[in-house]
Q: What sequence folds into this?
């Protein structure tokens, strides 16, 4: 399975916590991340990640392109619902292409648990 992991700054601690809790299952996957999220995950969980650019510098679009290519099976995108992002158009494009390609997308930890359970057979 190829899983994309992305978190806005206020949610990065939650992302590291989530990945740590599911390290066995996620460790079997190819993990694709945006830049800073991936650095946190790699440094703090030891899992290997394929880091793209940071979100504000095109990382969301790079992951969106992989989704368009059929190269991603599921996306966990812990979005900050309380902070405006300068690269909101890129974020919208990523969310949209998930719907276009019918790729499972979780935007909070509760749904991310279900996504991991559904795709990887673990909650
Ligand atoms: O901004 C992001 C997603 O929109 C995440 O990017 P970083 O992981 O580089 O912080």
A:
């Amino acid at each position: 399975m190829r899983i994309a992991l992305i978190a806005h700054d206020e949610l990065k601690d939650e992302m590291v916590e989530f990945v740590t809790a599911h390290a066995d299952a996620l460790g079997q996957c190819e993990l694709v991340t945006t830049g800073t999220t991936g650095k946190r995950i790699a440094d703090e969980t030891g899992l290997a990640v394929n880091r793209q650019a940071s979100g504000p510098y095109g990382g969301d679009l790079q992951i969106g392109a992989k989704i368009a290519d059929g190269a991603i099976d599921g996306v966990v995108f812990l979005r900050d619902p309380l902070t405006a992002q300068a690269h909101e158009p890129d974020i919208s494009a990523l969310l949209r292409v998930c719907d276009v390609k019918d790729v499972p997308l979780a935007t909070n930890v509760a749904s991310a648990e279900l996504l991991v359970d559904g795709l990887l057979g673990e909650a």
Observations:
- The helical segments are 12-21, 23-26, 35-45, 59-68, 88-101, 109-120.
